[in-house]
Amino acid sequence: NDKGDHSGQAKKIVVQEGITGLIGACFYGMLNVTEVSLPSTLKTIGTYCFYNCSLITSLTLPEGLEVLQNACFLNCEKLTELTLPESLATIEASIIGNSNLVLTVLSRTVQFDNYAINTAKTIRGYIGSTAEAYAKSNNIPFETIDKILKIEIVNHPSRAYHVGEAISKADLTVKITFEDGTEQETDSYGLSYDFG
Questions:
Q1: Which of 68, 78, 104, 148 has a CA between 20 and 30 Å from the CA of residue 159?
Q2: What whole-number distance in Å separates Cα of residue 107 and Cα of residue 89?
Q3: H-state helical runs in 117-157
Q4: Which CB contacts under 8 angstroms, 24+ apart, belong to 14-19?
């Protein structure tokens, strides 16, 4: 009872320039797809769009993308690295759940739904970003992508410390200058010494 649907045989998806939204489950269950090409004009990836496209190993999301809807990459088990562009404004529920995923978030302010990322190996993003807050509140390891240019001591310890003695963080605040020129004062750091 073949009605001409050969989507299960497709290995590559190419979405033409000019398309702004992939709405609904348009590529749902295309089990043999390994490669996807998305246009620079894309703004929205819809609910269940790539659900069960389990052989996709890499995917480049274009700058200009604004919304990832529910379960859009759910069960894409071979997708182990994904970078979300700076333009992204909203991540809805359960977009992906892959315990081997390294998710890099370039937006500092993207809004995460409470259950946006079911699981991930690591979320990478900027210090102070919504990605860092989401990772910490969901017990997902976080790695910074900030590039540090300079670290300065803002206030010095109020007394002398000896090797092996714990330094009170209240006694030592540092100012970090990042590559983009922003500065941040913090008492959240680790100190180690190499006397070798």
A1: 148
A2: 8
A3: 130-137
A4: 15/39, 15/42, 17/41
